[in-house]
């Protein structure tokens, strides 16, 4: 299966690409549709951007909303999840002494976002340490709820964490935040197309996700979801044609007939809308290729590779399998110069994979997508065995 699927992607054949999680990879049929949209735009830019764009942007909103368990009025297209989360973080009315509760597993760009907001507002960031290995839902949820206080105004959590590839069980934490009047803001950058989402049932106030990662649409396609009750809290990062002076009045409509939430964020001057318009093609591609079966195969391959590496290193995993992202796993490796190891993996074995130190743990983060294969996993283990001297270490353990 992987060999046939590999031919449907544009990944260079001389690279063993095990880093789908960073920026994704777009299948050839989806990429072709992306280029069709770009060519159509260039054929008559004024008609495309000036007269047709609002209607064109609606179709992927409808298709994506159905996929994500919500309605088209609750999501808006963006270039990436970081943009959506910045819109939320910079819109909320925070004051000196207010607290943003988060974990020690968050994406560095968003850590900087909240630090920026705190510098402007006087709010404070409170970081709770999630106990590892993560073995139960209660272990996670109890840690989060214990961190909540009367000063907590925002709960900011990743759904799937970037450095540790953990699937956080966030449902009860969100429900508790709602009961306490705490805004819940969820970083779902790795989640769409990776796990099944029902955003309305999840109940987070704000949820941002990328489509260009595991959903495999072109780079620059993402969304922000906001519950209807909190959409009025948001302000666009850029004031442009979609804004109206009456946008905060009850029942107001945006400049292009949608809600202010959609028009103010969606219409922000000249940009290439082709990535967002191609989301529908990406959803079609997944359905046409039985992607549920592909994902099941990838999950099995990822977990098997992590198990095999653990047997070589003697290091325990950082979570039970159910709390590991299905197609992405953070594999602990012996203490090493992670920057040099990453370079050696690429220079000597043509393996593209993130290697870094997170807190006190050295991690090799493996992503497995439909274009990957077991021989590639075997090569990764061979390379790590060589570069880290794992055979010698295993021999010492059994001596």
From TrEMBL:
Residues 27-353 form the Aminotransferase class V domain. SUPFAM superfamilies: PLP-dependent transferases (SSF53383). Keywords: Pyridoxal phosphate. Signal peptide: none annotated. InterPro entries: Aminotrans_V_dom (IPR000192), PyrdxlP-dep_Trfase (IPR015424), PyrdxlP-dep_Trfase_major (IPR015421), PyrdxlP-dep_Trfase_small (IPR015422). PANTHER family: HERCYNYLCYSTEINE SULFOXIDE LYASE (PTHR43092:SF2), L-CYSTEINE DESULFHYDRASE (PTHR43092). This is Isopenicillin-N epimerase.
